[in-house]
Specification:
Domain AMP-binding enzyme C-terminal: 479-555
CATH topology of the largest domain: Rossmann fold
Strand content: 15-25%
CATH class of the largest domain: Alpha Beta
InterPro entries: AMP-bd_C, AMP-bd_C_sf, AMP-binding_CS, AMP-dep_synth/lig_dom, ANL_N_sf, ATP-dep_AMP-bd_enzyme
Domain AMP-dependent synthetase/ligase: 31-424
CATH architecture of the largest domain: 3-Layer(aba) Sandwich
Radius of gyration: 23 Å
CATH superfamily of the largest domain: ANL, N-terminal domain
Keywords: Ligase
Shape: globular
GO molecular function, one term: acid-thiol ligase activity
Number of strands: 27
Helix content: 25-40%
Distance between the termini: 50 Å
Strand order of the largest sheet: 7-6-5-3-4-8-9
Largest sheet: 7 strands, mixed
């Protein structure tokens, strides 16, 4: 393959290969390998509680046997409704070791949101944080979930911190209430730590999953806004972890990665759960992003690599500079999920002396498919260039078989070993995004881009109307469907508006009042949405309009709504 075929190869950092050999192994192979090669190396640091690679692999084997004893079998879907913690890592790999399928869920989701995803996946077992247990149990009658296993997050803390939670002081009570929650009387649940501590190790001869087996169902709105489970096989996730290792050229058993991105999000899952384990990194796990916690960890265990979203980098750079925290150990960082402002990259690199680059991907690509080179050739403001073994083409959105000339706008199509096989039990949606062209399977991203010199990709617009706020996807149709049930609202269009501060975009609802209603308050709308939506999906602003612009067939033109709101200032 020549530079004429793939012009971006000339921008690769020295040592990054154009292609990788296919890897015929399951995700669990990397963990088993790291445990054998580096048994005493710290794999996880959760709030100061350390787990070595040998201990992590041993816990995974005991957890796998515990799950097998309660009925989990190969191909079963197991829902994980957990924040970042050591148990999340153990449960993730234990499910995979059995040949079962992980289904990741946001633990802040409402019962309605969880019910849809749990029912759609057909999950029969759910491993759930105590705080999320009420929502899961409320959703359970509408799903196939038979067994709920609850996790006490405080059991992952160092013993001294766990003991301090019982002190009769306000700080201890506040932290305890944030990490734990009482269960309803009569709730039929099992206890994770009790099950795992009582279980033997899974027999060594228990069949391993294959590269072709499904590893993960990751829910995404795709191009329609209706949440669907992206089918990611072991080979997809292994390929993306290997691509990341080749791209960063990080040294095995020498990196320390800050895991503030949520594991239930595709970005955090790959960078902090699969890629990190593949290179035997020490993963410093944060239950949620907190500037002070990250800086405290930096003093205790200096990070060398930090994946995040732009607001994280901006806040950390500002705080580190103000507090005099040495961040120069952090040589590399990668930003995703939203556009990286040039000033944020500059501030981070000034504080660390390292490199911050932007990457691009989708849940359907495991998730990373483009990235800026980890070198001085990086280009701020660009999504980057294709990863090793990946391809791209830019096409006419109305006829994706027709490529547009270089430098012109078109829809981005991508291909590679990390690209998914389709949506779980949604063949029509799969057919809409996966195309066979010239003997290769291409994914329609729904993003409008321009490919410029040396193959660098610049994002121009989104065909998809997904709102990206704080790194999370908000699907306008879901918010609209809920708000239309509010008696004061006659009609509504929900759009994302730039200028959401740390959020990137803010969710704005354009509302047509119901007949006879003269006013509706934002607080009332948010109180209504809190019943069934995650906090980040709530409207942050309202605009009252006499009517909504529509197409000739009656479809609300969200793009026009957005333009009208922006023009109002």
């Amino acid at each position: 393959m020549t530079l004429a075929d793939r012009p971006w190869l000339g921008a690769y950092a020295p040592g990054v290969p154009a292609d990788l050999e296919p890897l015929d192994e399951p995700l669990t192979a990397a963990l088993e390998r790291s445990a054998a090669a580096h048994p005493s190396r710290v794999a996880l640091d959760f709030m100061g509680a350390v787990t070595t690679y040998d201990t992590l692999w041993r816990r995974v084997q005991h957890a796998a046997e515990a799950l097998r004893e309660i009925g989990v079998r190969k191909g079963d879907r197991v829902a994980l409704v957990l924040p970042n913690c050591a148990t999340h890592v153990v449960a993730f790999y234990a499910v995979l070791r059995l040949g079962a399928v992980v289904v990741e869920h946001n633990p802040t989701y409402s019962a309605d949101e969880l019910a849809h995803q749990l029912a759609d996946s057909g999950a029969t077992t759910a491993v759930v944080w105590e705080v999320a247990a009420a929502a899961v149990l409320a959703a359970q009658p509408r799903t196939q979930v038979r067994t709920v296993v609850v996790v006490d997050l405080t059991r992952d803390l160092p013993s001294a911190k766990r003991a301090a939670l019982h002190l009769p002081v306000p700080a201890a009570r506040k932290l305890r209430s944030a990490m734990r929650a009482p269960l309803a009387a009569g709730a039929h649940v099992l206890r994770w730590h009790r099950l795992v501590s009582a279980a033997r190790a899974l027999p060594a001869d228990h069949p391993h999953p294959t590269a072709e087996d499904i590893a993960l169902l990751q829910y995404t709105g795709g191009t329609t806004g209706v949440p669907k489970g992206a089918i990611l096989r072991h080979r997809n996730l292994v390929a993306n972890a290997a691509q990341g290792a080749a791209w960063t050229q990080h040294r095995e058993a020498e990196e320390t990665i800050g895991a503030a991105l949520p594991f239930f999000h595709a970005f955090g899952m790959t960078l902090c759960l699969t890629y990190a384990i593949r290179i035997a990194a020490t993963v410093v796990v944060f239950p949620k992003f907190d500037v002070d916690q990250v800086l405290a960890a930096q003093r205790r265990r200096p990070l060398t690599f930090f994946p995040g979203v732009p607001p994280m980098f901006e806040r950390l750079a500002t705080a580190a500079k103000a507090q005099g925290v040495d961040m120069t150990s952090c040589r590399h960082a990668i930003s995703g999920a939203m556009s990286l402002p040039t000033e944020t990259a500059r501030a981070w690199e000034e504080v660390t002396g390292g490199i911050l680059v932007e990457g691009y991907g989708l849940t359907e690509t495991s998730p990373v498919i483009l990235g800026n080179p980890m070198s001085p050739d990086r280009r701020p403001g660009y999504l980057g260039i294709p990863f090793p073994s990946s391809r791209m083409r830019v096409v006419d959105p109305d006829d994706p078989t027709v490529e547009v000339p270089p430098g012109e706008r078109g829809e981005l199509l991508v291909a590679g070993p990390q690209v998914f096989d389709g949506y779980w039990e949604h063949p029509a949606d799969t057919a809409a995004v996966l195309l066979e062209i010239d003997g290769r399977t291409w994914l329609r991203t729904g993003d409008i881009v321009v490919v410029e010199e040396a193959g660098f990709v610049r994002l121009v617009d989104r065909i998809k109307e997904v709102i990206i706020t704080g790194g999370f996807n908000v699907y306008p149709s879901q918010v609209e469907d809920l708000l239309r049930e509010m008696p004061e609202i006659g009609d509504v269009a929900v759009v994302g508006i730039p200028g959401g501060g740390d959020l990137g975009e803010k969710v704005v609802a354009a509302i047509v009042l119901a007949e006879g209603v003269t006013k509706v308050e934002l607080s009332a709308v948010r109180a209504w949405s809190e019943q069934r939506l995650a906090r980040y999906a709530h409207p942050r602003d309202l605009v009252i309009v006499p009517e909504l612009p529509r197409s000739q067939i009656g479809k609300v033109l969200r793009r026009v709504v957005r333009e009208q709101i922006v023009s109002r200032g």
